[in-house]
Structure formats: C-alpha cells, structure tokens
Amino acid sequence: MRARATAAAALLAVGLLAGCAREHGSTAGTPTSSATPSGYPEMQKKLAAAESALAQADKDAAQDH
Q1: 16-29 pLDDT, tens per residue?
Q2: What is the C-alpha to C-alpha distance for residues 18 and 34, in angstroms, rounded to an integer?
Q3: 42 near 16, Cβ under 8 Å?
Q4: CA geometry: angle at 55 spanning 53 and 56, to 5°?
Q5: Inter-residue contact 43 to 20 (CB < 8 Å)
C-alpha cells in the first residue's frame, strides 16, 4: 500500500511540474539563478498541497494495517 501511495505522489508531482512548465514556459530565459520565477509562490502552494496529500495517504495506509 505504501508503494502505491508513493507512486501516486510521484505522479502528482510530475503532473504539477509539467503543468507549471506549460503555464510559465521554459526556464532557459531566466536571467540569473538568483532570480525568483514569476510563478514561484504558486508552485510552492502546489508543492505544499502535494506534500500534504502524500502525508495523508501515508497516514491512511498506516491505519489500514
């Protein structure tokens, strides 16, 4: 069950990254590595939501046993 939750979280993370890349284009145009991308706060929120979903899936899986 844990492997399934991990796989689901990985797919969610890949989907979020792909969605963000599509919305904001390639990172090749960023001026410097110290510059913050324009959609960075939104990406942080999506990442936090994905991490929360993973934690909940782990909690649910632990209760099943």
Answers
A1: 776 655 555 555 55
A2: 22
A3: no
A4: 65
A5: yes
Placement of tokens 């792909």 in the chain: 18
pLDDT at 39 over 80: yes
Cα–Cα distance between 16 and 65 in angstroms, integer?
30
Which of 50, 25, 49 is CA-nearest to residue 39? Answer: 25
What's 38's DSSP letter? T
CB atoms within 10 A of CB 9: 17
Closest to 49 (Cα-Cα) out of 11, 16, 3: 16
Average pLDDT, the chain: 76
Q: pTM value? A: 0.45
Residue 8, amino acid? A
